[in-house]
């Protein structure tokens, strides 16, 4: 199946030469097309012809009329079927779009597209996701299928938006003409967009049935998509997201998930696990089976530290893995934030995510402190340990690789 063409939107803060540099960077990361919108940029803020020489240009009319120079330079011209008035575009350039303000039934969606469209025009239908459920995803897939029957699969894109929409957009993308993605950083053109790096990685890989993904908060640094089979999605959610309903809704479409902070305890309870925290879900027919492969990582780190008497900063999902992996000669002393008053000596393990501010009272007297995060978060934690008088030991990669090997083996058994 042909992959959707990857579209990135020019952020509103970028103008002139900065816009050209952004387009060049997006192309190098695998983008196929650049979108420029009239609600984000005035006509004189960008050189449309120069941008079009770097990436194919898609110009979108949003409230403000499209400048003629943008239309002339563009490969596609996006006009809203409700608000544009006339679907005006040079021959072969029209992308007709509709942006619903609520979730629709398939019949409601199809009625929006009953009017005639110019030959060859692309069709983009967008709806909010609403509450995640298997039935809701099924409706969106049916809408996509019916629009493809009417207009041809090579012309249709169906998108959904919202704080938990990312995995549903990923499912829809397999039969879309276009996929709108984010290049990274704090800004996205719409809630629920996948990262360009993940979508491009999937496009390069051999397609296989059943997606994989990682669920967590602040996980843009995660290396999981780089080492696990594709397609693999980074699903970054707010801490209070309805993750239980989301994994149930995605059961038909994903064969497994990696689970990271803060959802390990919640999904352990939701799946009826016998342990307090899990980090892996594997599809077993009509339900999820849960595991904690962090025990493999914990065992590796404890071996590197030589075991013995260790303090542990924090007592969440990682703590549960350390308890499970500890041998008879390991004595683990779990310290909660409020209980830390004296400087810590000896050897310990830092389990708090880097987004959590450590207590002001935390100090070390030359203690060796293992960091089980990796990448930029690990470096930030290491700096904090050093500032407070400790010696950081970067063991996150060892933990990550050990637990990931076990995850991969489990996902291969999914049914």
UniProtKB/TrEMBL annotation:
Gene3D superfamilies from the UniProt entry: Leucine Dehydrogenase, chain A, domain 1, NAD(P)-binding Rossmann-like Domain
GO annotation, biological process: chorismate biosynthetic process; shikimate metabolic process
GO molecular function term, any single one: shikimate 3-dehydrogenase (NADP+) activity
InterPro entries: Aminoacid_DH-like_N_sf (IPR046346), Shikimate_DH_fam (IPR022893)
Top-level taxon of origin: Bacteria
PANTHER family: BIFUNCTIONAL 3-DEHYDROQUINATE DEHYDRATASE_SHIKIMATE DEHYDROGENASE, CHLOROPLASTIC, SHIKIMATE DEHYDROGENASE
Protein name: Shikimate 5-dehydrogenase I alpha
Organism: Cystobacter fuscus (strain ATCC 25194 / DSM 2262 / NBRC 100088 / M29)
